[in-house]
TrEMBL record:
<dbReference type="Pfam" id="PF13676">
    <property type="entry name" value="TIR_2"/>
</dbReference>
<feature type="domain" description="TIR">
    <location>
        <begin position="8"/>
        <end position="119"/>
    </location>
</feature>
<protein>
    <submittedName>
        <fullName>TIR domain-containing protein</fullName>
    </submittedName>
</protein>
<dbReference type="InterPro" id="IPR035897">
    <property type="entry name" value="Toll_tir_struct_dom_sf"/>
</dbReference>
<dbReference type="InterPro" id="IPR000157">
    <property type="entry name" value="TIR_dom"/>
</dbReference>
<dbReference type="GO" id="GO:0007165">
    <property type="term" value="P:signal transduction"/>
</dbReference>
Length: 143
């Protein structure tokens, strides 16, 4: 099935915005549609816009925030929403962040985590693309 039937939502902290763009660009180059608040402007109804994007994604790519990130609960909320919708959550530890210095909520602790300190960005993007389930063609036709 072509990669263009795959769509991800990238959840990230402000401090990881550049890394989110890099990963997003690499996934787009590999034929995956990328959503998230990378450049989106939802206006006053931003929560509904984020919800719709998470609902329409096949998976959520979670860039694990540092423990000092003040808005990290919003990132955990987005990941929890994806899990509640039955969507895979694919965790990535951004460069220059140590796994030992991060904490995952217990409901997310069992996630496979890709460490961008130990792998090239191309390798991380390739693994993410392979891990995203393809969109069901029947569901696309129904919408």
């Amino acid at each position: 099935m072509p990669e263009d039937h795959k769509r991800v939502f990238i959840s990230y902290a402000r401090q990881d915005r550049d890394f989110a763009r890099q990963i997003g660009d690499l996934m787009i180059q590999r034929g995956v549609a990328v959503a998230g608040n990378l450049d989106a402007s939802f206006g006053s109804d931003w929560r509904d816009g984020l919800r719709r994007q998470i609902e329409s994604a096949n998976a959520l790519v979670l860039l694990i925030p540092s423990q000092t990130e003040p808005n990290r609960n919003a990132i955990w909320f987005e990941a929890g929403a994806a899990k509640a919708l039955g969507k895979p959550v694919l965790a990535v530890l951004p460069p220059s962040r140590e796994a030992a210095t991060t904490e995952l909520p217990t409901d997310l602790a069992g996630l496979l985590m890709l460490d961008a300190n130990r792998r090239s960005l191309d390798s991380v993007a390739d693994t993410l693309v392979q891990a995203v389930p393809a969109r069901d063609l029947y569901n696309i036709a129904a919408h």
